[in-house]
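Project standup — Tuesday

K.O.: blocked on the structure for the chain from last sprint. Re-posting the sequence here as requested.
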Amino acid sequence: MATISKKNYTFAVGRRKSASARVRLFKGTGENLINGKKIIDFLLQLEKPFKLTETIGKYYFSAVVAGGGKEGQIEAIVHGISRALVKLNSEKFRVILKKNNLLTRDPRVRLRRMVGTGGKARRKKQSPKR
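H.V.: unblocked you, prediction finished:
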């Protein structure tokens, strides 16, 4: 039978384009992990929610990311970290993170190609010269 352990983290989901990140935020100091791998160069973009809320060194995270490219995945993790921080201390962090657009899911996605175009989304077919 499986044992049930006490949850000692805050969970949140972040999304951007087609990337989706499941973030677990732990209290204390530890290694930040993305898909089970250590982050050697702590990316400045991932540091942003912690820097704005002045919580650098107080929390660490573990994220599982799927879909999208590198930039989309990083932004999905930032979105997830921000949501998790708000779950921890809503009245303090929400105003700061909302002001810096870290809680808003960016709705911009790749434009699908349309029928009758020359292979691209907005490209028009070449018209005959004569």
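K.O.: great, moving the ticket to review. The first helix runs from residue 44 to 52. The radius of gyration is 19 Å.
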